[in-house]
Structure formats: C-alpha cells, structure tokens
C-alpha cells in the first residue's frame, strides 16, 4: 500500500525543480527500474520514476529518449501489471509530441517513428484462427491508408511465422499499445494524432477475440475513447480511411464493430465532418455499402447507423436515397444470396427512415 506514497514522494521532490540540480535523483530512479523478477516491485519502481519525470516534462527530453530505448524490448512483458504501467509511462514520454503545423513537433521521441517500428511486429495477429484472411487487400482506396502513411512495410501474412510463443508475444505487445493509446486519448488536451488510427483495423479484429478476455475489454475501451475524441479537420481523412479499411475486411464481426465505432465517431465530430462534402459522401457511401453486406448482423447494424444519420440531418439528398431503397426493396427475388441481401438492405433502409422520425409520418412513407 506504500507504492502510491513513493510515487507522490518522487513527484513532490522534483516538482518545480531544476533537473540539472537534481540529476542525481533522476539518474538513481532511471537505474534499471525493471531489474527484479517480482512484477510488483518493478511496477512500484517504475511508478516512482514516472512521478518524477511527469513533473519535468520538456526539461528531460534526453531522459525520455533513454527511457524509451530501455522500455522498448519490454513492451511485450508477460505480466499485466507491468504492461499497464509501461503503457502509462509511454503516455508521459510522448506527451510532448503535439500536433502542430511545424516540420518537427518536438525534440523528444516521435509517435510516428515509434508506431512505424511497432506495427510490423503486430501484423502476425491477422493470421489468428478466428480472424484468418481478415487483413484488407490492397486497393486504390487503401493506397493512402493510415499504415501506409506511416511508411510501415506491410508484410504478407503467409510470410509471418506465428508459433505459440510468437502469438503470445504479439498479443502482449498489442495490449501494451492499446493501453498506451487509451491513456493518451483520455489524458490529452488535444485531438488524437493520426498515428493512433493505424491500430484501428487490428483493434476492431481483436475486440472480438474470444480467447483473451483482457484483450476484449481493453480493445473495447480504446475504441470507446477514440470514438468520443474530437478530431482536427486535417486528421479526419486519415481517420475515415482507417475506418474504411475495417469495412473492407472479410471478418464480419470487425465490420460490425466498425459501424459501432463510426456511429459514435461521426456524432461527436458532426460539425467538423459536415463542413466537408467529400467526408459526408464518404461516410454515407460506407454505411450504404455495409447496408448491403452479406451478413445479416452487419446489415442490421448499418440500418441503425443510417437511421441516426437521417435523424441528425447528415443525409442531405433524402429523396434520391429513398428512391434507391425502394428499388432495392422491390427487387425480384431470384434465389441468390446477393439478391436477398440487397432486398433486405432496401427494407432496412426504409425502416431507418421510419425510425429516424418516431413522432412524424414523413411524406415519402
């Protein structure tokens, strides 16, 4: 019960102090904090270090570089307690990497370089048993995807050797990254940076990974935090590109999760998105495409999202949409699965118009 006291002690000792005069304290705390076998002791030592550097911020940029180099090999630590603490420390390390219009945002560690180094180590998770072949195939629309923007070399799943140890290491690494992103989004006073959306496709997949309850919960928490985050206008295309990647995956559960995320994301950023016609058209096209999805679960979720968009006035050309939905609903049944899905999409779309106006009977109806 004294871990918190030691953290407060180190934070109070370094508060409003010149790190040049207290370098001995910082160096002492930096001295191999994860050297013990007991995770609780290591976590307490790391917590004391975090309390000290949290008070210095921009004054100890050199320590941030050293600490990041020290923690990078330990990001896939097997103990949950340490992974969560490391994710919290990463939030402090990258807190200075603020989105600005300048060529270089900080002298400290950069999020873009860090994510570019980590992302290739996570690609093997696409080949897990229940998400096999769920990685999006390269298309014209994906050419400027978030991962490509970070210049990450996308490896083929067939080139990744996923043994038991490799899978466990990759899952632990993903857990640490998810905790870091969640903490950064919740604690930051600014918009989520574009690099965070590079994790979105994989997190949407693993949010439905039933073999690990911890991974399910933290992925859900990350999606909830990012969906409610306000995004700067210049970052919206990157965010929607990442969402579109998930919508093109072969995993129907990932596509359904993508719709849940899109619904909250659009409503929290509605004023910003509504000012750009290209983004409005992209969102509407994505929802209407998933409304005709082969899986009934995805179609029903898309119908709910469409109803919300209509209710908020996000869909401007309602007459054209109504005609298209009527055409789909009246489509002759030929017995094919695709024809049934399109006809069901038309019915769900018409139901969306009705549920979007619960107290009125609109003219087309």
Automatic annotation (TrEMBL):
Signal peptide: none annotated. Transmembrane segments: none annotated. GO terms for cellular component: cytosol; nuclear speck. Residues 1-50 form the Proteasome activator complex subunit 4-like HEAT repeat-like domain. One of its GO terms (molecular function) is proteasome binding. Its main location: nucleus. One of its GO terms (biological process) is proteasomal ubiquitin-independent protein catabolic process. It is found in: Nucleus speckle. This is Proteasome activator complex subunit 4-like HEAT repeat-like domain-containing protein. Pfam families: HEAT_PSME4.
